[in-house]
Amino acid sequence: MPLPQPDDLTSLVLRTDFGDDGAWDAVRTVLDAAGEYPHATYVSELRFADVGVQALMDEEDAADEDARIIHVFLADATTMKEPGHPLLAVDLSDEPGRTFRLPAQWFPDVSANLSIANMDFAEFADAADGSGTFRGFDKG
Fold it and tell me: Source organism's superkingdom (predicted)?
C-alpha cells in the first residue's frame, strides 16, 4: 500500500509513535503555529507505528511511479518527547534514506521549498549541524 499523497503542496507528516496522543496534538499545534499557511498533511494510521526508514523506502519502491512521494516527515518518539518537536525528514527520491532532524520552527520554510521544488532535500541535509539537525542556513 503506497504512502498517502497530499492533495496540495503540503508535506506529509507521518505519525510513527502512538504512545501519547497529547504529544501528537502538541506536535500538530506547534507545526500549525509555525507558519502563516498550512504546510502539513497529517497522517495518523496505526499501520505506520514504529515504521522505519527502510520500510518506507521499500513501500515507495513498490508504488506506481505516479503514486510516489519524494520526501516525508516522521513524527517519531524523538519528535514527541524532545523540546522543539524535531521531525525526522526522510528523502524518498534523490538519495533514498537520507535523513535530517527538523525542529518545528523550521518546518514551514523547509516544507514550502521542498513542495515547490525550489530547493532540494540535499541542500537542507547538507546544512544540518553535527547532530544531524537543520537549524537554518549560516549567514556567515
Answer: Bacteria
- For CA atoms 73, 104, 6, 45, give the dihedral sign: positive
> pTM of the full predicted structure?
0.91
CB-facing half-sphere around the CA of 63: CA atoms within 13 A: 19
Strands 99-102 and 87-91: antiparallel
pLDDT for residue 140: 44
Residue 128 Rama label (left phi>0; alpha psi -120 to 50; beta): beta
Say whether 73 sits in a helix, a strand or coil: strand
Could you give the dihedral angle defined by the CA atoms of residues 45, 63, 98 and 28, in that order, rounded to the nearest 10 degrees?
-30
**What mean pLDDT, rounded, does the chain reach?**
89
With H, G, I as helix, E, B as strand and everything else as coil, classify residue 78.
Answer: helix
At 53-82, the pLDDT tens digits run 999 888 887 777 777 788 999 999 999 999
